[in-house]
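request received
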Amino acid sequence: MDYQALAQLLFPQVTETPEELEARYPARNLPEGAVVSRMAPSPTGFVHLGNLVQGTISERMSHQSNGVLFLRVEDTDAKREVPGAVEVLIDTLKHYGIHFDEGATHDGDIGIYGPYRQRQRAAIYHVYAKKLVTEGQAYPCFCTEEELAAMREKQEAMKVNFGYYGEFAMWRDRSLEDIQAAIAEGKPWVLRFRSTGSLENQFKFDDLVKGKLTITENDIDHVLLKSDGIPTYHFAHAVDDHLMHTTHVVRGDEWMATLPFHIQLFKALGFKLPKYVHIGPLMKMDGTSKRKLSKRKDPELALTYYKAEGFPIAAVKEYIMTILNSNFEDWRRANPDADLDDFKFSPKKLNPAGSLFDYAKLTDVSKNVISKMDAATVYTLLTQWANEFDADFGAKLAADADFATAILAIGRGGKKPRKDLAVWKDAKDYMGFFYDDYMNAPVFDEKFEKATVKEALSKFLAAYDPADDSAAWFEKVKAITTEMGFTTDMKAYKADPAAFPGTVADISAMIRMAVTGKTNSPDLFSVMQILGKDRACGRIQAAIDSL
Ligand code: GLU
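response:
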């Protein structure tokens, strides 16, 4: 076979050589050990937790080694593309602190290794495709859908492996004349790789997550270019990651199945193989068994979900590191105030089987993260969230920033800060009673006569002095307790509950209910201080009147 002639027949338009291309994509001038990694998403419009996990790993490996992180848009599947998806992706990742040093942006590409959108790279792939044909390593295949379906049926009947290989590879050894004739007829063709691999042969491979593996060679003549001249993922991966000088490919382990082919392809093209970081899927418990997070069943897979719930970005990032590296939590305990990026991420500590996503744990992490923020930060983030997801609440927060910040300051800043908020969505329930519109009408414990409640509230109203400090305030509550025959001695009450109508806790609960409309609230003394005497006492009076 005259491969030169075949290459010329298939790619007459290609005049550039691989050497010329290599010169256009010079080696990167980076320090020893610097990782060049990338995110290579398909713009389907759905940005999920898996993207963030993959992005976090790539970002950490690149930036903690003073390397480069770039964004390449894998838009070879035009059918799946959603308009604006690239922009959504860029914005979402940026929102979570994943900054790219180069690649696709809103306003074109940044960097000299582009274009960073695969459809714009068609001519580049064709240069290497032509080279492979010239060397007899690739050939055109004119099989129709029907022929391929028939092949599959035959393989099924013969109980042999599926795929285009060996005796089933119908166009593998066709003559130049046959190919010329098919082209002259205008038949569509794909370009296939001529595999020399055999299922009999195995080789060793080291994956940074999966460890040492024994891999069986690939014997299938996979498609390199589709009939529209656009490459498959496999071919684009080899060409792009070579030219862009990627050192580490971080990707989902669904690509393990075609890894033998990728390794073979890099070799056939004369490219140095990058290191691979194959990450397992995100799992969750479903009853007693684990399963993959699914787009259909699990709303928490979508990143928009976390925004709508109101998880602070810092909490999501902190949680992701928790599930990625098992030593992260110990590090955090030892370095409670350190920047997340000071933690040394290691791909070796990833669970090869995939990370377990646990919503309750995320909530705990988020509570911690929020509890460490100062009131002004909480105010800013909460208001941002509310403006987008609860405009009425947002307007109330904005109308009096000092008031809202004072509320959010309750129990904050000490050694053991309160952990009331896990997500901004919780805030209205937590602090809504400060706003008259959101306060529920008090419902008092029916254990006590209305007259008793009224008496306690009236006594408190008469005694309340906003100038009191917290201790003096509580002394007054205790005094009312004793006056009314209730007890402040919890032990005595426990020993003989029938001896008292109730305790100081019951009296406090009545006041709390009158002031907040709730059985639970942050420190009542502080609540009354922030509400101010008029509003606090007005609420108590209204409760008395209602009884
Ligand atoms: N476009 C591929 C995907 O979204 C990229 C895999 C890779 O990072 O190589 O799965």
